[in-house]
Every structure is written in C-alpha cells, then in structure tokens.
Amino acid sequence: MEVFAEFLEKIENMQHRERTEEVLSWVSEKYPNLTPVVKWKQPMFTDHGTYIIGFSVAKHHLAVAPEEAGITHFTNEIVQAGYSHTKGLVRFPWNSPIDYALLEKMIDFNILDKADCSTFWR
What we know:
Elements: H1 5-9, H2 14-30, E1 35-39, E2 42-47, E3 50-57, E4 61-65, H3 67-73, H4 75-80, E5 84-85, E6 90-93, H5 100-113
Antiparallel strand pairs: 1-2, 2-3, 3-4, 4-6, 5-6
C-alpha cells in the first residue's frame, strides 16, 4: 500500500480517504499477484503490464474503471446493484456499501479477458 500513500494523503475528506484505502487494501489482499501502481495520478492495478482496474475520487463517489469492456460485460449487474455508470467507470457512492462481489467479478473478468494482452489498454 506504500505505493498509494501519497495519493491517499491528498484526499482531504477523511471518510473518503478511509473508504478508498479500504478498497485499495481489499484489492491488494484479494489479488496479491496484481501490481499496484499510480499512473495519471490515479491508483490502479496491473497484471503482466496490462491494466486491470483503476480508481479515482470524486465529490460524491469512488469511481471504479474496469475499461469499457468490463462495463459492457457487467452493465446489468451494475444497474441491479444500484450504481450509475458511464462507458468507462462505475460510481460507488460514498454513502453506500461497496459491492465487493461485483468488484471481484469485474477484476476476475479483466484478468481472464486480458491474459494474453500485450498492451496496457485493450
């Protein structure tokens, strides 16, 4: 988690910082083979040099970015979970619990779908 320390320190809202750290820690513990990195000033996780999942902090939510393919694949589950989304990210509101099962599915999907990917992005 040291790689994310500077990013986390810059989150002024302590509740947002704690929630973000909780999610990043969960990913690190659940997926020890993923590499935690900060690129474009955002925390993300990679696998064999390819992007798997990234996060960003907004006023009302933690944005989770599994790339467009991940959003498309899980659109129905994202909507059923009550989250709003764009083509590139899912909004996890600060005042709602994190659906870790859905987050796990998105990460697992990207790991499998990008197993043979040799580029950072799809």
